[in-house]
UniProtKB/TrEMBL annotation, chains A, B:
Pfam families: HydF_dimer, HydF_tetramer, MMR_HSR1. InterPro entries: FeFe-hyd_GTPase_HydF (IPR023873), GTP-bd (IPR006073), HydF_dimer (IPR041606), HydF_tetramer (IPR040644), P-loop_NTPase (IPR027417), Small_GTP-bd (IPR005225). GO terms for cellular component: cytoplasm. Residues 178-276 form the Hydrogen maturase F dimerization domain. This is [FeFe] hydrogenase H-cluster maturation GTPase HydF. Residues 12-125 form the G domain.
């Protein structure tokens, strides 16, 4: 975390009067004690820079400012520093209290609009009253996202997270690499690409092409092989590869043919991280343990392809999951950009590999599920869990392994 | 050639009255003496089946029939056999003589139309007179391709070849495999994929993806590597690969890093064969030897992408070709489906890799160039020739090597 240079972090400017709860909002967002929280106005004595990992966006730099309305010699300095924050913020959060919006907030609002800095308005302390309707209407008209929160109670924090995902510029929401950290420069990966009925004639599917390109972009190289030829291909190498990546459908065969000391995972798990939030998916996947026959499971597919014979989302995944659960589940399928508003009836929501969604869309879905208290997973993780190969497939990802261990995971390893 | 099973050959039924010149037409098309040519009516005593390689379409089976109008006991048998040919022909050629179209030809015409068999009408012996204008108008209206020929003099043969290219069903004009014969099942290829400015972000270009897929479809596997990591990648193998394929732009570096006993070629040369006619391209490329400073060279690009910095068709290829010729050439660029009607001013026409054209279009262009007497080549072959790596890059292709040797080729080999 500390290794990300400051310049590459998303800079989030936190603007607002003294004592509107900026620090407690930041704490709630990051679940860490970052700055001293106090109800005496002006406790924060300087612009506090806090580099942190805000999952799932990644490395951010929160700049928690003192109020511009501050007075006195110390206040002067604060105001100057706050002004500098405008120059540096990639996005802004205006924190205000219900009923106190005035010239001060208007000034920040105007400043951010003029600089074309995307921003969010947070009405904090809603436990003391609701935000003004005229005000809300104006924000909606200007397309400025707003959130009602009671940060100290943790209320509205998921809404703010969702608003952040919507607001963060593309270059920060998209991770730089699919597997650059797993296959170092000069190293080699083996990509296992089964050719089944779903593979379009003469083509490779997008996650495979993107993975090959990503490997080349990182000055590494790869072997591309079907599952049947994998053993021969590995035998042909003088040194083992840094990583074996397989299509989830060939997990067991590839797990069997790949020596245990070689890292192995799936395209779908790589894309859980690249297009979504691997740690959250791991937590969600482990809820499979609690699934009961008859439970409702949502399956969301990004492409609206016509389902064919052994379709993964319609046939294989449901079969493997039901075998694990030991009884029939009720599956509901949605396609494309459709996603149910009411998720409350589902015990699990499973996304596909998400090649046709951008990361912003996938992260929004994950937060929607969190808000509804529904665990989320994706195809690769659900299949890995159902087939008993979960722990091995997560081994290359330390943060995911930590989440797995925290939840008491100790699944079987298939060699 | 003989190894192609009869069932996989394009069956071309040759229909027509006795002595209209079917056999001499066949000879002219294939440049071989297939059947006895005589001006005594009815020399051909049976449906003559001739399996042959009709470049560039590939393995064909000509079925040269006796006339349906034949009389007598022997004639009866001939008529019966001719009828069977209708059941077997993938396409038909009705051969007639100027001025003799009648009930007989109408019967064949109707039969082929009813069966929805695509066919071409050839008016042969045009040295004896021109085909009837009303007749021609009717064929044009029905969208039936027709050709005026004087087969014994070789006239109209290229027109017939072009009409055949337009008429042949897709499955016969498209070769089954890009490199299936070069990388046998269980074997391995190394694909060298430079990542330059032209490579679209997060993608591979189409010939690379199609080649990977083709290798997997043939139960082989491949290594994908940038030119810089090629040496390391080859060192990592216990056994050398069956083939190294490189982007033409990295020819010299890859030629240097690939041991001489390993076959090496380029994507562009593979696609010269897959999307065009490698043998004809080899002949055309060797005309570079006769290019003089000031000559006009046509460069045809299938995709209308915006030319960028070191664009291959605009910058690199012209530079290398001019260095070889030793002086300035006049380049004319066309894009997409544009192709000049008048080719007479060009000394050479060079096609790109042709990923966005189908084979039918490329073959039509080659015949158009042949008709105008303009040599044709493609990017990969021109670059290989200009860089002195032509012979090495052709070594994997016996038919191309034969054409090269026939024209006295003995270029340098760069190791």
């Amino acid at each position: 975390m500390k290794s990300t240079p400051k310049g590459l972090r998303l800079h989030i400017g936190l603007f607002g009067r003294r004592n509107v709860g900026k620090s407690s909002l930041l704490n709630a967002l990051t679940r860490q004690d970052v700055s001293i929280v106090s109800n005496v106005a002006g406790t924060t004595t300087d612009a506090v820079e806090k580099p942190m990992e805000m999952l799932p966006i990644g490395p951010v730099l929160f700049i928690d400012t003192a109020g511009i309305d501050d007075v006195g010699a110390l206040g002067e300095m604060r105001v100057q520093k706050t002004q500098q924050v405008f120059d540096r913020a990639d996005i802004g959060i205006i924190v205000t209290e219900v009923g106190v919006w005035g010239d001060f907030e208007e000034a920040i609002f105007a400043q951010l609009q003029e600089r074309k800095t995307p921003f969010i308005v947070v009405f904090n302390k809603t436990d003391l009253g609701a935000p003004d309707a005229t005000h809300i209407a104006r924000l909606d008209q200007l397309d400025v996202p707003w959130v009602a929160a009671a940060a100290e109670k943790g209320e509205g924090v998921l809404d703010l997270r969702e608003a952040l995902i919507r607001t963060v510029p593309d270059e920060f929401i998209n991770p730089p690499s699919i597997l650059g950290d797993l296959v170092p420069s000069g190293e080699m990966a083996v990509l296992v690409v089964p050719i089944d009925m779903e593979a379009p004639k003469g083509r490779l599917i997008l996650p495979q092409v993107q993975s090959i390109r990503d490997i080349l972009d990182n000055d590494a190289y790869c072997m591309v092989v079907k599952e049947r030829e994998l053993r021969d291909a590995l035998d042909r190498l003088k040194r083992p590869p840094a990583l074996v990546v397989t299509d989830s459908q060939a997990f067991l065969k590839v797990g069997g043919d790949t020596p245990n000391d070689i890292n192995m995972t799936s395209f779908s798990i790589l894309f859980a991280r690249f297009k979504g939030d691997l740690v959250e998916y791991v937590r969600g996947t482990m809820a499979i343990e609690n699934l009961q026959p008859g439970d409702r499971v949502l399956i969301a597919e990004s492409c609206a392809h016509h389902p064919i014979g052994e379709d993964i989302g319609r046939v294989k995944l449901p079969r493997w999951l039901q075998q694990y659960v030991g009884g029939k589940l009720e599956f509901v399928h949605v396609q494309g950009h459709d996603f149910p508003d009411d998720l409350s009836s589902f015990s699990l929501a499973i996304n596909c590999g998400s090649c046709m969604w951008n990361r912003r869309e996938v992260l929004s879905r994950i937060v929607k599920c969190q808000q509804a208290g529904v665990p989320t997973s994706n195809y690769g993780l659900t299949i890995a869990y159902s087939l008993g190969i979960f722990e091995r497939a997560l081994k290359p990802f330390p943060a995911a392994m930590d989440a797995y261990r925290e939840l008491g995971g100790s699944g079987p390893i298939i060699g």
